[in-house]
Amino acid sequence: MSSKPRKLDPRVIRTRQMLRNALIELIGEKGFSAITVQDITQRATLNRATFYLHYRDKEDLLAQSVEEILNELVTGMKECQLIDYDITDSDGNVVQPLPDLVYVFEHVAKHEKFYRVMLGKKGQQSFWFRLMDVFVNVLNSRLEQSMSHEIHPKVPKEILIHYAASAYLGVISWWLKHDMPYSPHYMATQLTRLRIQHLQIPPFELPPEPHDS
Asked: Coil, strand or helix: which one is 71?
């Protein structure tokens, strides 16, 4: 018999959310290194005993919070990749955004405070690299799916993918910094246009590997 995954008690979910929210608020105010467990529990209006029922220390709280957010992001993007869609018309014009990009911006908007802090000046640099890895992996998968064996990028694939992933992060950071002036759908449409411009490219052989002179 297969066992279904146990559902968390809603009270546990609520407690963990309160602790995560407190942590993110405090990181935004004074940076992670200056925060104590006491600070977190006071902000969350919970006691220290409750904190230690769920987490070993503040590092564990941060690590689990990041893991939950990124797992949600990756799962949603993978589900979007299964959607059948046509994003361009017969002339090659973008008529709708890629579903996974719509999901990315909706996800970031849903967790706006988390991303605003973690990608901000007082956030954790390690989170930036983790998010970069998510985009690199998705773009790599996309590129392999969309290109036949006869088509090669004009630049090495690794450079192209990291260039695009960095652009995603930069655009998301800008969007948050300016209080999300455009809707997730609009932002996804603009990045879809950019992604097609950079990834849907004509046949061309890879350049030769550079040699030391």
From this structure: helix
Nearest to 123 by CA among 190, 35, 212, 16: 35
Q: What percent of the chain has pLDDT over 90?
A: 62
Q: What is the reported pLDDT for 140?
A: 85
Whether residues 47 and 90 share a domain: the answer is no
175 with 82, same domain: the answer is yes
Q: Are residues 37 and 88 in the same domain?
A: no
pTM: 0.84
Residues 41-97: pLDDT tens digits? 999 999 999 999 999 999 999 999 999 999 999 999 988 876 666 776 766 677 788
Residue 38 to residue 44: CA distance in whole angstroms: 10
DSSP-derived secondary structure for 77-117: HHHHTT-----B-TTS-B-S--HHHHHHHHHHHHTHHHHHH
Calculate helix-pair angle for 37-44, 58-80, nearest 10 degrees. 60
Q: Report DSSP letters for 120-145, one per residue.
A: STTS-HHHHHHHHHHHHHHHHHHHHH
Report whether pLDDT(163) > 60.
Answer: yes
User: 72: which residues sit within 8 A by CB, 6+ positions away?
Assistant: 107
